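Sorry to interrupt, but I need a hand with the structure work. Could you add the entry underneath, on a fresh line?
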Amino acid sequence: MKIRTVYFSPTGGTEKIAKLFSQELSRSISMMNGRGDAEGEVEYFDITRPQAREDELSFSRDLVVVAMPTYAGRLPNKILPDLKRLIKSDGSSIAVAIAVFGNRSPGDAPRELALLLKENGFKVVGMNAFVSRHAFSDKVGEGRPDEEDEKVIKAFAAEIAEKLCGAGDGARAGAGGGVADGTGTESEDGAGAGAGDAASCAAIEITWDESDLLPYYTPLKEDLTPASFLKAKPVLDPEKCTGCGICKASCPVGSIEEVAIDETTLEETVIKKTMIEESRLDEGKHRGKIVFETPGICIKCQACIRKCPAGAREFKDEEFLSHVRMLEAKYSGRER
């Protein structure tokens, strides 16, 4: 059985978990079908960049793994419309929903993803949430997923494979890793599908709708009062920027643009506070230099910061930085 895996992963954490799970699922299915532990074919669809989300991904009689990062306890709200439009099935495909979170909480992201897939024509046979390093800080979820996480991910893959291949009594392919409220229970019809008959296996019961989902988490500062950084964007250091364009290519919402430093740039920096660091912007020194700033929306994914080879971008918004310090203080241990 060919597995098709779709993921959105600006900084690589979700991609790593999606691939680990998919490869282990493929291997487990091969073993249960008597083909040894050889890994079967997995096709990957990386929908991180805007151009990858232009055309609909339509699946028919496929096993589809969909992995998404958790933003404030839900799916990324700026990507959600694309996700609803993009990933479709004609009713014959089955799906596994995976949410990846940065050691604080998955919130309702797993349930939101499972609901979306059901509404888009998939039979959802399992969902789960796994920890990765937090995008905001290396200290939060440091080194995750680690060896212990990999064991949990592989166990869940084996559980799903057992369910799909009809081994045993029809395993419970469900919440695992801390997704609560019994949302992994099977429906009564179709349990114990035979090998090669995965389409008839039990779906998890999705009894909730969008109105039942928890609201987006309100980020907190160090004093545990709400942090307001919705409009915060990375600040560019023109002294360090080499004009390579990696940040622009990495932005999942296409918000970074090429800018030539001139008198207009200088004036806008002072008056409108654009995302070029004013204190480092010298007209005589930098005139004509090509740099990359962020006039569009920012989803705080950190892709441009983490992928910049020159270290030319960083957040300086104090509300955001206070939130990061709070996360580091409260969630640097092994919470999940």
